[in-house]
Here is the input.
Amino acid sequence: MTSLLVLGGTQFLGRAVAEDALQRGYEVTVLHRGLNEPPAGATALQGDRTTSDGLRALDDRAWEMVVDTWSGNPSAVERSADLLRDRADRYAYVSSRSVYTWPAAAGADEGAPVVQVPDDVELDYAESKRAAELAVESAFGVRSLLLRAGLLIGPRENTGRLPWWLGRIARGGDVPVPGPRDLDMQYIDARDLAAWMLDAMSRGANGAFNAVGPPGCATMGELLDACVRVTGASATLRWVEPEAILSAGVQPWTELPAWMPPGPDHDAVHRGDVSRAQRHGLSMRPLYTTVADTWAWMCSSEGALALKDQASGLSAATEEVLLKAL
Here is the structure.
């Protein structure tokens, strides 16, 4: 029986990995802080990776595979990779396409320039992710797998992107949405990334992969139309030109989740080359299925509790400004 350790494993992508592995019959262990319920069937160990002794629960144990979704200070990844280098066969780290020198050009693949990690200064998000990649590569070499994720959506999403759009559209009325309607996007369902990650590790894949769907796998129009359909809302999508949005001082990506206006930043986020991952079997479920499953989770007691403090997206006052601009 394949043994898997998930560092995390109780939220979003980490949980998707643990649940997929359990369905495959893997022996799954999750190390978490005890803030969320672990997946049923997994062995749960508690530890806080931000503390010096946070990995003590892993002592005298070994696994065939390790999956790490840490997004904070890279020292946590350095400690776990160093501890497990002789007690695990393979180590997969979920990184980010933010590690590329910004903005990465349209069509950039895994060979594109990456950020440099400075010494003796506080690291930003991209530098932290790159430093964690280097730590995993140092400890595991060709036994390491680096997943440079892009826009990640699906049930249990805790980043306030697709759930915000679904929640806003469900309220109905005129909804200002960022154009153009046919603006292309790249995304991936966390469950598809989880399945591909386990498959890739089983096959011995190594190195860096752009871990997101292919360019043009969706458009803003297709995404938001799906939100209208699954919620059954009486919402009217009012498409606003990018120039009007930016003139109003609206922040792409944060105030309008998942959206980047046409230009270099959009190319960097939504037009990366994923042919290497596709050659290694990456596939995706239909967009509508992802949106519908996310809405179903939001309507559950678990989803309602998880999203009760969600604060991303446009304010009502900013919506009024955009609607008036029309």
In short: The longest strand covers residues 88-96.
